[in-house]
Automatic annotation (TrEMBL):
The chain crosses the membrane at residues 70-89, 109-128, 135-157, 202-219, 225-242, 247-264, 330-357, 369-399, 405-427. Belongs to the SEDS family. FtsW subfamily. It is an enzyme of class 2 (transferase). Pathway: Cell wall biogenesis; peptidoglycan biosynthesis. Residues 1-43 have a biased composition (Low complexity). GO terms for cellular component: cell division site; plasma membrane. It comes from Luteimicrobium subarcticum. This is Probable peptidoglycan glycosyltransferase FtsW.
Length: 502
């Protein structure tokens, strides 16, 4: 160290000395000195940085996992179904009692259809995408035939004719048409993927087939289902890569036709009045409080009464015949009243997670058929949920659209669960997902192994357990070390005596 220097110096030989071998004067270089940290600030900062690195690594692992999409779709589906069943029981029991019926009637039917839908979902999730392609045309044909029978022999309610009675079961063919149309559009658009830049190939046969389905639904005056079908068609065409101007032009023409047919050309209907009341604001329309704004006002009261945490499960007041269609179209209002803002945010969050999973599947899967079908199903389910919530909070007029996987309704529930099974089947074929599923240990196998081990140990007496432990200890003592087993057993030493030694 030189006099007056504040840091130690180390000697570094020059290149000349190394090259010639002769001694040379060394050059003093200051040694690296670590920077001083402020007192008391190093440890918390290191811990925060470590936690941030762990969080980033965890998120990256989850994002890169090929099974993330599969588990997101499965988890959100089961969560929404678990929320819907108790809410259907809570919102329908009072009405059932008032009609001299069992308070569990609507709930038992919903639980039955939920069981059927889960079976359909599991079966659909095991099918390859090629199987859905083969079912596209037969499914659409069957849906069109059933829709054509609705105006002739169908059942009506609340001004809509949308149901068919098949023995003791009442089905809604329009719900089945949603899934059939999504698969059919994906099949025809994926087959013509390279020709969709031409307007004629983009429109035929996708648009005529979609118009046939939507037109048959409009014959039954079901505006809500028709709007959902239009969202489905738009989603399929957008993901397929149809030109934006063609897509916007078709949307404008379809919207004009719907407005002309269903809004301004219906004698004795109050649909136009409901739209006007919604635009004016039902909270200010005192004259329509008992007519067109009745449902919306009671929906607002239910949401306002719930507050942050709700009045409690089963303690709703609006379900006592004040809020019409509480188990169906306005079940979101009952959720807000009984579970509060937190319950409604939970439902909205699950719907958002489902939409993210669908977007992830579209971006990661290489098959155009899977991409288009996923986009169509996502626009159907997510768009229907947005319409339902918008009606409940007063953004949209009352159009009669249920909340997917939550509202009461057998046909809608089974069809939506079948659509979720379709998405699960697509997620299983995502790149890397098949290998990850094959490498995953079976839950049943692990459970049986644990149960079998517990049973074997429980069936032995304490003395038998001690004897077994002693045998295991002696066996471990006599067996060679596994680390030296590769080198072979030691050879025996043979001692020989020479005759001359004796």
């Amino acid at each position: 160290m030189t006099p007056g220097s504040s840091a130690p110096r180390v000697a570094r030989a020059s290149r000349g000395a190394a090259a010639t071998g002769r001694p040379n004067r060394s050059t003093a270089v200051p040694a690296a000195v670590p920077a001083a940290r402020p007192a008391g600030s190093g440890a918390p900062r290191d811990k925060a940085a470590r936690r941030e690195r762990v969080a980033r690594s965890t998120l990256s692992v989850v994002a890169d996992n090929p099974l993330t999409t599969y588990y997101l779709i499965l988890g959100t589906t089961l969560a929404l179904l678990a929320i819907g069943l108790p809410m259907v029981l809570s919102s329908s029991s009072v009405t059932q009692i008032a009609n001299n019926k069992s308070p569990y009637g609507t709930f038992s039917n919903q639980a039955l259809f939920a069981g059927m839908g889960l079976v359909v979902m599991v079966a659909a999730s095991r099918l390859p995408p090629a199987a859905f392609r083969r079912l596209a045309w037969p499914a659409l044909t069957a849906a069109v035939v059933l829709l054509a029978l609705v105006p002739v022999i169908g059942l009506g309610a609340n001004g809509n004719r949308s149901w068919l009675k098949v023995g003791p079961v009442i089905v809604q063919p329009a719900e089945m048409a949603k899934l059939a149309l999504a698969v059919w559009l994906a099949t025809v658009l994926a087959r013509k993927r390279n020709l969709l830049g031409r307007t004629l190939h983009a429109l035929v046969p996708a648009v005529p087939g979609a118009l046939a389905v939507v037109g048959l639904v409009l014959v039954g005056k079901d505006l809500g289902t028709a709007l959902v079908l239009m969202l489905l068609v738009v989603g399929a065409l957008f993901v397929a890569g149809v030109r934006l101007r063609v897509l916007l032009g078709g949307m404008v023409i379809a919207g004009a036709l719907v407005v002309r047919v269903l809004v301004f050309n219906q004698a004795g209907s109050n649909r136009l009045t409901r739209i006007q009341s919604t635009l004016e604001g039902c909270q200010h329309a005192a004259t329509n409080a008992a007519t067109t704004c009745y449902q919306s006002l009671h929906s607002f009261q239910a949401l306002g009464t719930g507050g942050l945490t709700g009045v409690g499960l089963g303690a709703s007041r609006e379900k006592w015949s004040y809020l019409p269609e509480a188990p169906n179209d306005f079940i979101f209002a009952v959720i807000g009243e009984e579970l509060g803002l937190l319950g409604t945010l939970l439902v909205i969050t699950l719907i958002g997670v489902l939409s993210y999973a669908c977007l992830r599947l579209v971006r990661r899967h290489p098959d155009p058929f899977v991409q288009i079908a996923t986009g169509a199903v996502a626009c159907w389910v997510i768009g229907q949920a947005v319409l339902n919530i918008g009606v409940v909070v007063g953004i949209f007029p009352v159009i009669g659209v249920p909340l997917p996987l939550v509202s009461a309704g057998g046909s809608a529930l089974v069809t939506t669960l079948a659509a979720m099974g379709l998405l699960l089947a697509f997620a299983r074929t995502e790149p890397g997902a098949a290998l990850a599923l094959a490498a995953r240990p079976s839950v049943a196998r692990r459970s049986l192994a644990v149960v079998g081990g517990v049973r074997r140990s429980a069936g032995r007496t304490p003395a038998e357990r001690r004897r077994t432990g002693r045998r295991a200890g002696r066996r471990a003592a006599t067996e060679p070390d596994p680390s030296t087993a590769r080198q072979g057993r030691p050879r025996p030493v043979i001692v020989t005596h020479d005759r001359n030694d004796s």
